[in-house]
Amino acid sequence: MKVSLVGVTGYSGMVLYHLLSQHPQVEKILLFGHSATATNENHRSTSGLPSYLNISDPLLPYDCQTIEERSDVVFFATPAGVTSQVAQPLINDNFPVIDLSGDYRLKDPLQYQKWYHKEPVAKETLRKASYNLADLSKPTSNYVANPGCYATATLLGLAPLVINHLIEPDSIIVDAKSGLSGAGKKLTTNSHYAYINENMLPYKVNQHQHIPEICQQLHQWNDQVNSIQFTTTLVPMTRGILASIYAKAIKPTSTDQLQEVYQTFYADHPWARVYLDGFPSVKNVSHSNYCDLGISYNEATNTIFVGSVIDNLVKGAAGQAIQNMNHLFNFDETMGFNLIPDIP
Ligand SMILES: NC(=O)C1=CN([C@@H]2O[C@H](COP(=O)(O)OP(=O)(O)OC[C@H]3O[C@@H](n4cnc5c(N)ncnc54)[C@H](OP(=O)(O)O)[C@@H]3O)[C@@H](O)[C@H]2O)C=CC1
Ligand SMILES: CC(=O)N[C@@H](CCC(=O)OP(=O)(O)O)C(=O)O
């Protein structure tokens, strides 16, 4: 199949290119940039792609028609606010899209406006997109809204507890930490080396755009869950997310019982690994598509703790996008993943 990719010069776009180029079903990758500034196919030498990428393919100016005529699916690894502007013709034609941004994740346009501070697309258009956490479901439409990185770590950590009604619905607290690549390639004051090196800071407290996305999915699993307490912290790592999740048990339980619940829940899910001894670290999943989970119960406080780790660029973005492509085209879910975690 032929695949189009918009945003190869970004962090998740580069990882996506890497994964697509080793996917056995992908014979051609067409690269698209901004509509106005990218060069055309005849100007390979000034393609605008950094030479370290070692990509000989040209970067084409963004154009829906070319994408539809010359490929079978398009990935958008572009910031929020791009697909809401450019993807409508693809939706009208029911062309397969996998969107890594948050533009089509929330069903309620007012929620998007509130949390992303951008203009939403119309509600009817949002209905045509399917938010799909690829480890637990398959897309129900051709427009796939790939989940956010923090949301992925959090939802995979909470799914067995929420779906099995094992926790007090209003007791969820998530303390999530991310490496800097989660913020993309643009430089900000907080991501400047001199500031973030040897440093850590909470940011977007109670304002993070993944809060409504997480609540939307949790509510779908269990309609008694309406809100969560969610804090994000930037830590001086390149890759990785650790979501530390806390919730009150509905009734007293034990670590052994909970580990069994998680093992049963994830038994047929190749990318989720449940630890029976200790807790996973972000290095355990680095450069891989795994989500590793460790669970503990504190009977003194009746609190369940779950540690959920992912690589934000793979499971949190490009890897999950490939899983969603595999679902969309009925390939085996694990196809194209020749990845094992690499330490250090
Ligand atoms: N980084 C992560 O860990 C994760 C990211 N995401 C989401 O994935 C998307 C990409 O993130 P990330 O890779 O971090 O972002 P980057 O900032 O690293 O890269 C953004 C890419 O989008 C391109 N781009 C920007 N505007 C346009 C436009 N109008 N038309 C075409 N191309 C455009 C940029 O091109 P140029 O180089 O020319 O500027 C660049 O290639 C975002 O929506 C992000 O929220 C989701 C999960 C995790
Ligand atoms: C470390 C860091 O800054 N992370 C980003 C995650 C961005 C992201 O994944 O954006 P989406 O909303 O499109 O999913 C953040 O907290 O905003």
From TrEMBL:
Transmembrane segments: none
Keywords assigned by UniProt, alphabetized: Amino-acid biosynthesis, Arginine biosynthesis, Cytoplasm, NADP, Oxidoreductase
UniProt domain Semialdehyde dehydrogenase NAD-binding: residue ranges: 2-129
Enzyme class: oxidoreductase
BP GO annotations: L-arginine biosynthetic process
EC number(s) given by UniProt: 1.2.1.38
Amino-acid biosynthesis listed as a keyword: yes
Primary location recorded for the protein, binned into one broad class: cytoplasm
Catalytic residues, chain numbering: C149
The protein's annotated pathway: Amino-acid biosynthesis; L-arginine biosynthesis; N(2)-acetyl-L-ornithine from L-glutamate: step 3/4
Subcellular localization: Cytoplasm
Domain of life: Bacteria
Record has Cytoplasm as a keyword: yes
Stated role: Catalyzes the NADPH-dependent reduction of N-acetyl-5-glutamyl phosphate to yield N-acetyl-L-glutamate 5-semialdehyde.
NCBIfam families for this protein: argC
Family: Belongs to the NAGSA dehydrogenase family. Type 1 subfamily.
Protein name as it appears in the record: N-acetyl-gamma-glutamyl-phosphate reductase
Phylogenetic lineage: Bacteria, Bacillati, Bacillota, Bacilli, Lactobacillales
